[in-house]
Design brief:
It is built from 3 helices and 6 strands. The protein is of the alpha/beta class. Strands 3-2-1-4-5-6 form a 6-stranded mixed sheet, with helices on one face. A hairpin with a 4-residue loop joins β2 and β3.
Length: 107
C-alpha cells in the first residue's frame, strides 16, 4: 500500500510532519510492502505551481493520506479515492509507527 504523508523537510525518516496539509513543502510516499520511501518537493498552487497539494496527492495513486490536520476542501476532493487519517505528529518514522498501532483518526 502507498502511504502519503506531508512533510516540513526532506530529511528521510527523520523528516518532521507538516501541521498544515495545504501548505506542506514536501510530500513523502512510503510503500509499506517494499519499505521504499520517496520524498518530493511540492510545486503546488501555494508555491506557484498548477495544482493544489490535494490534487497532487489525488494523482499520485496513494492509498492512504496520513496528516496532522486537513481542511474541508481537501477532504471533499480526496474522500472516496484516498483513505484519510488525521492526528499524526512527530517525524515520519513516528507517524508510520503510530499508523501501525492504529492510533489515528479516520476522516
Amino acid at each position: 500500500m502507498k502511504i502519503c504523508i506531508p512533510l516540513l523537510e526532506d530529511n528521510g525518516m527523520d523528516s518532521r510532519i507538516s501541521d498544515h496539509f495545504g501548505k506542506s513543502p514536501f510530500l513523502s510516499f512510503y510503500d509499506d510492502k517494499t519499505s521504499k520511501l520517496e520524498i518530493i518537493k511540492i510545486a503546488g498552487k501555494h508555491a506557484g505551481g498548477q495544482q493544489t497539494i490535494a490534487e497532487i496527492v489525488l494523482n499520485s495513486n496513494a492509498d492512504i493520506l496520513i496528516c496532522s490536520n486537513i481542511g474541508p476542501k481537501a477532504i471533499d476532493l480526496l474522500k472516496g479515492n484516498i483513505y484519510i487519517l488525521t492526528g499524526a505528529a512527530g517525524n515520519l518514522r513516528q507517524v508510520l509507527q503510530t499508523f501501525k498501532m492504529k492510533n489515528l483518526r479516520s476522516q
